């Protein structure tokens, strides 16, 4: 009964949102509940508001993480990689993305330690990616240049300028521009940079898959994925998982601990 009613509420709210309908707090919404028998239920909007308030915060996150844990097998990843994988899945709501994720050995744990113990610089390709990061010390490559170098995009020129001017061992986050990733790899091959980690899940049909493949074939510490899928949201989600772990928060573990009964809890007899 409850789960069916929950779903009905969300469907009605979604319908109102998609059709730009406004609802007065005093209005009533008629919905049909078929959980046990066909009947009409009248739900006051203030009840919906209370329902959504109850679903705020940890509850939504816990349920999301529980769904992810039940949908995919994360046993092949270490503790740090599992947190990143869960966050990326959460960002795109597609468990199949797990089949394409790629980690270099120990890279995530190293980046967590780096952020926990220092004020590491984080350099991103575009403003969309930078805005999504939970980190103070961030630089957007695109902000570093107005006119690109000859035969290069603005993002390429910007990321190169930012990397060459930054302190050693930055964390590089590429969510949008495959050309920026090519520049990162080129600078690394020329031994001009030595990044702590490159988080690169740029999206696109032109160049994105090839750039990520080139990264995966290198020895650069990395988190990436195979194919054209990606984007700033997924890339930022991967980095944010690292940032939260650096502050001691393992979201997936904490969520599963909250929703899983303790082993030593006394069970009531049926």
Blueprint of the fold:
Layout: H1 2-18, E1 28-33, E2 39-44, H2 45-54, H3 58-71, H4 79-92, E3 101-103, H5 107-117, E4 122-124, H6 127-131, E5 138-140, H7 154-165, E6 171-174, H8 178-189, E7 197-200, H9 208-217, E8 222-225, H10 232-246, H11 251-259
Parallel strand pairs: 4-5, 4-6, 6-7, 7-8
Antiparallel strand pairs: 1-2, 3-8
Please tell me about this protein's structure.
- With 270 residues, this protein is α/β, with parallel strands linked by helices.
- It is 48% helix and 12% strand.
- It has eleven helices and eight strands.
- The chain has helices spanning 2-18, 45-54, 58-71, 79-92, 107-117, 127-131, 154-165, 178-189, 208-217, 232-246, 251-259, and strands spanning 28-33, 39-44, 101-103, 122-124, 138-140, 171-174, 197-200, 222-225.
- The strands form two sheets. Strands 3-8-7-6-4-5 form a six-stranded mixed β-sheet, sandwiched between helices. A two-stranded antiparallel sheet has the order 1-2.
- A hairpin with a 5-residue loop joins strand 1 and strand 2 (39-44).
